[in-house]
Amino acid sequence: MRTSRGAWSVAGLVAGVAGLATSYCVAMVMTIRDSPVVAVVEQVIKLVPGGVTEKAIRLLGALDKPLLVLVVLLAIGAAFAWAGRLARRSWWRPLLVYVVLAAVGAAAVLRQRGAGAVDLLPVGVGLGTWVVALTVLVEPLRRAELVDAAATERDAAGDLPALSRHTRRGFVLRAGLLTAVGGALAVFGRSVGQGRRAVEKTRRLLKLDGVTEGQVPVRARVDLDEITPWRTPNDDFYLIHTALVVPAIAPTDWTLRITGMVDRPLEITYAELVQREITESWVTLTCVSNEVGGDLVGNAWWSGVRLADLLAEVGVQEGADAVKQTSDDGWTCGTPLEALTDDRGAMLAVAMNGRPLPVEHGFPVRTVVPGLYGYVSATKWVRELEVTRFEDFEAYWTGKGWAERGPIKLASRVDVPRSGAEVLAGTVRFGGVAWAQTTGVAAVEIALDGGAWEPVEVADPGTDDTWVQWVGELDVEEGEHVVRVRMTDKAGTVQTSVEAAPAPDGASGWHERSFRAVSS
Ligand SMILES: Nc1nc2c(c(=O)[nH]1)N[C@H]1C(S)=C(S)[C@@H](COP(=O)(O)O)O[C@H]1N2
Ligand SMILES: [Mo]
What we know:
Layout: H1 5-29, H2 36-47, H3 50-60, H4 64-86, H5 92-110, H6 121-153, H7 161-205, E1 255-260, E2 266-269, H8 270-275, E3 279-286, E4 297-306, H9 307-314, E5 322-327, E6 332-336, H10 337-341, E7 347-352, E8 355-356, E9 366-368, E10 382-388, E11 411-416, E12 422-424, E13 426-435, E14 441-448, E15 454-455, E16 457-458, E17 468-476, E18 479-489, E19 511-518
Parallel strand pairs: 1-10, 12-19
Antiparallel strand pairs: 1-2, 3-4, 4-7, 5-6, 5-10, 7-8, 7-9, 11-13, 13-17, 14-15, 14-18, 16-17, 18-19
This protein binds the ligand Nc1nc2c(c(=O)[nH]1)N[C@H]1C(S)=C(S)[C@@H](COP(=O)(O)O)O[C@H]1N2 and molybdenum atom.
């Protein structure tokens, strides 16, 4: 017998552990609350009768959870080894074991509060690893058995020491390599996860003087139930970043350097920054990638420190026309110097809707500049501002063909009725948003089925740096219809009907929505 039961068990175990390691690593990097194994343990705790859990907790004190994790791990370990032994007889039996284990993991993950489809990714990665790793490991064993069988048939019984040693060496090498890679991934995942969790905790406990909740102006709201909220909650705010793993920066580790064409270069700490005068304002951020009618736009109450003041202090030199912003993750953007020094209120923001910036939105400090697309202004995890000239550098997205300057284009959107909705024929109420940051929205009009433009009611948030809600009524007959919207800014410019794709400097064109009107 060339291959022992033991080798097959070890193959199953090593493959299984490698899969746990990759799934744990993915869970940590994605900062999913915890690994699928822990999700399973939590379900076990929930399913076990309360009395038993309590007794266990009393008996074992704080050890109860790690102990449960250990028990679950031992159980899965046994299943892994068993799957390995099953692999000796067929390829599908171990697969079945892995799929069942993954299904249990997936079910446990989905039962966690607030879980969604992306939370299943670690489970999927783990399952994939199991299958690949097991195949890699049992392949030499299977080959050895074939040779062995052939040898037996030829009645050449006896040892085949060379082959045996060769096979064993190959197997041990593969198993060792998989274990090492799995271990390294788990350690990497752990360090990423721990860093992030520590920063999350600091952030939660952070109290910032001068930062207020921000009251939505009464007149910013129109009277229409289904309309997009004027203030976008932090959890619903769109996210755009190139970083795979978002930087987790403790405020004590953060400084900002202001360099380049300045008389007095400056390095400022987080503590120094938040001691300065805090300014607050409503600003609607927009992504240049937003399609006509798209949702890469959001409105928040930002608190931070005015950039114009900081730049005045460092003394900007003659000839500069740009600020190259660099993020902790290496992302860069180029902002017209003027947009940071004029009176539009560009800021280094430390809070969003009254809370320290969420980590994904740039904690501890990001830039917010009214009127410019995010890709040329809204640097998250900002670490350096270099005063310079546009001709002297190329920023991340401009290097990929996007425009060097990115003023936000006039835009408007129909949100009610939703696309494909059915409404009652007769007087129909329409609603949506429109924006022209820094200039302001003067008027919004809608047109039914290519007919005449009709003015609608536009809310007044009391600032020109945000979107506005609009609402209007039209008489609609039964049948299929298309409603279209356009706006005019306070400079008298009518939003263009010319359709443009987002690249290279933002989408344009009138947004329209199809809907059906029915009689009761
Ligand atoms: N560090 C960093 N900052 C960044 C980006 C990025 O990829 N990395 N993307 C920018 C883009 S394109 C936009 S639209 C805004 C989006 O900000 P949000 O994710 O907070 O909505 O952030 C900007 N700041
Ligand atoms: Mo963007």
